[in-house]
Write a structure and sequence with these properties.
The protein has about 200 residues and is mainly alpha-helical. Helices cover about 70% and strands about 0% of the residues. The protein is built from ten helices and no strands. The mean pLDDT is about 90.
């Protein structure tokens, strides 16, 4: 079997593994998923991204933001988020500021969030859980696109050695932590995709 055919089978395997983690991982169990989803929901509603601003969303009414956070937290309660982590449930204050001790993801580069928010807006989704599952799936797709570019530049790194190229690709595809993190709502997926494309451009230069 040729290098390309095996490599494409590995990409299909990456999609299957990624979607398995998307569906098997309980809602909101990805790192900081509630905060990432909050950003996507706000952007899908037409708000501006407060890049490099820890102070918050300057064009968002506090009541609107609290309504989003309250909906997400109630969803986390419904899916036993705190029981799974063996943590005490939140008090009457259901804001992220109270629950996550002021931590937020507002400092993150906006590209991943704008990309996801555009799709959420086109699909007219409002349920945070559905948005979370959609964005998890988009993360898996972005990583697979990055790996597709990796298929084309690996032979330049290991000339005349398809086994090394395939072994490197297989290591990434079947690395469990890569699969788990890649099936979460966070901008690491976009960073990995663009990073692999950029490495390919450097290798071909």
């Amino acid at each position: 079997m040729s290098y390309r055919r095996i490599a494409y089978l590995l990409l299909v395997a990456n999609l299957c593994i990624g979607m398995f983690y998307v569906l098997a991982k309980p809602p909101w169990q990805g790192y900081d998923e509630p905060q990432h989803v909050e950003i996507i929901i706000l952007l899908s509603r037409g708000h501006s991204h407060p890049i490099f601003s820890e102070s918050g969303w300057w064009d968002v009414n506090e009541m609107e933001r609290f309504e989003i956070e309250e909906t997400i937290v109630k969803s986390m309660q419904r899916y036993r988020f705190w029981q799974i982590h063996k943590l005490p449930p939140p008090s009457d204050d259901l804001s992220f500021k109270s629950i996550f001790k002021g931590a937020n993801e507002f400092h993150q580069p906006p590209l991943y969030y704008v990309f996801n928010a555009t799709i959420v807006k086109l699909l007219k989704l409002s349920d945070p859980v559905l948005i979370m599952y959609l964005c998890r799936s988009i993360s898996v797709l972005l990583i697979t696109i990055g790996l597709l570019f990796m298929v084309y530049w690996l032979p330049l790194v290991f000339p005349g050695s398809p086994k090394r190229s395939l072994s490197t690709l297989a290591l990434v595809v079947f690395w469990p932590m890569h699969g788990v993190l890649g099936a979460s709502v966070n901008n690491d997926a976009m960073v990995e995709c663009l990073g692999l494309i950029f490495i390919g451009l450097l290798v071909r230069a």
